Give the backbone structure.
Amino acid sequence: MKSSIIKMKIVELDGYAANPGDFSWEPLKALGEFVLYDRTAPELVVERAKDADIILINKIQVTDEVMSQLPQLKYIGVLATGYNVVDIEAAHRRGIVVTNIPAYSTDSVAQATFALLLAVANRVEHYADANRQGRWSRNPDFCYWDTPLMELAGKTFGIVGLGNIGMRVATIAREFGMDVFAFTSKQPANLPVGVQKTTLEGLLAVSDVLSLHCPLTPATHHLINADTLQKMKQGAILLNTGRGPLVDEQAVAQALETGQLGAYAADVMTCEPPEQDNPLFSQPNAFLTPHVAWATREARTRLMKIAVENVKAFIEGNPVHVV
């Protein structure tokens, strides 16, 4: 006699960003009744998830109010490292397991951090675009440059937050010959060779390049603001591949306008997608990419694999990567 197995219902509410069609959802379909939505508007979350035992999300906001309307919900799988989209306290109170996917994008985000920095230092896109328009062909000399060009070796690289990505960024910065300082909760003895711990004010004062890799919390919201920007070296470069609200975008735009900040290069913004009239878009020294640092095929392959493993472990009663 065959045993009766009740399969859990798994609902992916915003699957398109992580998997726009170049990966298979079959491994999740094998774990239960699987329903896929590419995108879900906030007002449709409860309706689409009402019968779900498991929901998978990326940027969907799951509040206490949403959970209160999903009595069958047992598990929330965040298909990202950051999990600030979920009210964790409310989930714990309701006995709902929440997992994330740590470290899957470490190398990709570290790589993107330096792609942004090199966009400022070498202006490759500027010259490539100009040369497509014949600028070099018309030049009387064998070369030309019409922007400042900067060598990274010998400059001071400051890092806020030494998690997986911050540590990888620190290592790469050292390989570029940069002096690396960090504002971190880690003890000096636990830092990589060549990385010096300092205070936030100390970091602001010495950094030629300041890179943000800390989580978004009430304490780090608008960590970079009008006051902290004034404490930075004039003309310093600010990098943000962490979270948009780590910076006050209006203050950053103003600092770019006055020249207090030499450049702002970021893969994240406070509102995503951003409003078209965001003041950063009118600043020529703002270099903005559309939250794609994590989105290499290699990183997304790891993400999809770990997402399936997380769900499988939960169903088997041994959840992993619980937050």
Notes: The mean pLDDT is 96. The two ends are 40 Å apart (CA to CA). Residues 83 and 100 are 7 Å apart (CA to CA). The first strand starts at residue 9 and ends at 12.
